[in-house]
Amino acid sequence: MTGKRFPDDFQFGVATSAYQIEGAWNADGKGLSMWDYYMRTAPDMIVDHSNGDVACNSYYLYKRDIEMLKELGVDVYRFSIAWTRILPFGTANYINPKGIAYYNNLIDELLANGIQPFVTMYHWDLPQTFNEKGGWLTEKTVDWFGDYARVLYKKFGDRVKHWVTINEPHVHCFFSYGLGWHPPGIHSPGIGFYECVRNLLLAHARAYHIYNDDFRATQGGKIGISLDMEWPVTNSNLDEDAEAVQDFMAFNIDYYLQPIFSKEGNYPERFIKRIADASKRQGYNVSRLRPFTKEEIVYLRGSADFLGLNHYTSKVVYRNESLRGAYEVPSQNDDLWVGSYGDPSWPHLFKLWLYEYPPGFYGLLMHIKNTYGNPEVYVTENGMYTEHATSLIDNERVQYYRNYLSALLDALYDGANVKGYFAWSLMDNFEWSNGYIFQFGLYAVNNKDPNRTRTARKSALVYKEVIRSRIIDYTYDVNPYEERNGGSIHRVHAFFIFCLSVYLTYVY
Ligand code: GAL
């Protein structure tokens, strides 16, 4: 036990996203998103050849999801709206009444159960119609996103008081337009990637200003953006490695924070300069990073009421000659020119990307506090995967959550303005390119079962206890199998046996 307590008004929640859980990909008038289209044209891009056509089937099973939220005792639920369920063709000229009805039901049922909706407008499922017109590589998307946001405020803003405009510009643009593994599968790591981020940031600002101008006075909610960030670490004293840390921060952290959350706005100088220098060396006559205009800098600056922080892991970073020729030219990786890896001494599973290093979470929260005037922060995603086949006893995940929540508490006690925390994720779901192989759920989902049965893992029950007690008790233990078979029935049995033994000892 750390002895520290979460304040009474601290909000606990869990997060999901539409494409990862809803299924019903073409039901009730829903239009095609770029994920729906991609799953029909490039199914090999998913390791297990699965897709989100059915996923957790939450379009039909949302009431079961709410039962789980009740069981956990969360205050808030972060879910996303599928753009094409509301606007099947993307544009706001036709609104799908069944899509509106679905989210009305979900929101109303949440509120009836005392759970606040925390709604993401865009979690990577761009309407395919817009993808065909250039997607996030065209600035027109900023207008389309603004029109969509306006529809959402009009239809749901009376009840939704926290909006996340965009989920993770960095990961979205890196996978979709840098690596080209996610739809639309465009490989343009040195130009397309930066254009995508630029347009996403501007789209966010558009949604913020529309709210400010036309809805804030009557609806009184808050608008934020969810930014993903990893924390760079070095144990070396070499100047090159210290530089690598600074550059990693500029490219992965301040690139996204500074335009919106700093006083001066704009991209970080260090970042602008590295890309300008690399572009020049490569023979471009202008930087591959298109600068913001003066008006855009002002438009973006201050365009958020809170920061949504998605954080999973840290990286050891370094720079040396071994990186010569390591990255494609031109690319964001080459512009940054830093090597990174997960420290093998940090707990991790399967040597993939997620290494447990809670001090990195603390460091990041304190960086945000100290550099950006201590903005209101909601941790909108944090969590740990296990392999699909694991049992309900997910001790690695339990340990991860306890340690990261402890780091959060430390930052909170050191003055970071963290208002809430969302575990990723409520349940196992479609994990993008990794299909259903790696799972992040507090609840296991049986996706061989047509009912997509959900069962609480140990981590769900431990998180429930954190929410109830507002402390992190490392000694608390619980067996999900007993709870599943009716923990209360076991307890009744135990009580009966106790009474019987008292009777036999003292009375009989
Ligand atoms: C985030 C993403 C989520 C989820 C998570 C776990 O980047 O926003 O949708 O997939 O990673 O990998």
Descriptive account of the structure:
With 508 residues, the protein is an alpha/beta fold. 44% of the residues lie in helices and 13% in strands. The protein has 2 domains: 11-477, TIM Barrel (Alpha-Beta Barrel); 481-508. It contains 18 helices and 15 strands. Strands 1-2-3-4-5-7-10-12 form an 8-stranded parallel β-barrel, surrounded by 5 helices. The protein has a 3-stranded mixed beta sheet with strand order 6-8-9. Strands 11-13 form a two-stranded antiparallel sheet. A hairpin with an 8-residue loop joins strand 14 (443-445) and strand 15 (454-456). The chain is globular. Beta-D-galactopyranose is lined by residues 17, 20, 167-168, 171, 228, 310, 381, 424, 431-432, 440.
Condensed summary:
The protein is α/β, with parallel strands linked by helices. It is built from 18 helices and 15 strands.
| CATH architectural type of the largest domain | Alpha-Beta Barrel
Strand content: 5-15%
In this entry the ligands are: beta-D-galactopyranose
Structural class: alpha/beta
Return the CATH topology of the largest domain: TIM Barrel
Oligomeric description of these chains? single chain
Largest sheet strand order: 1-2-3-4-5-7-10-12
Number of strands: 15
Query: What is the helical fraction, as a range of percent?
Result: 40-55%
Gyration radius, rounded: 23 Å
What is the CATH class designation of the largest domain? Alpha Beta
What would you give as the CATH superfamily of the largest domain?
Answer: Glycosidases
Low-confidence parts: 488-494
Tally of contiguous helical segments: 18
Biggest beta sheet attributes: 8 strands, parallel, barrel
What does the overall shape look like? Answer: globular
State the distance separating the first and last CA atoms. Answer: 44 Å
Task: Write down the overall mean pLDDT.
Answer: 95
Number of domains: 2
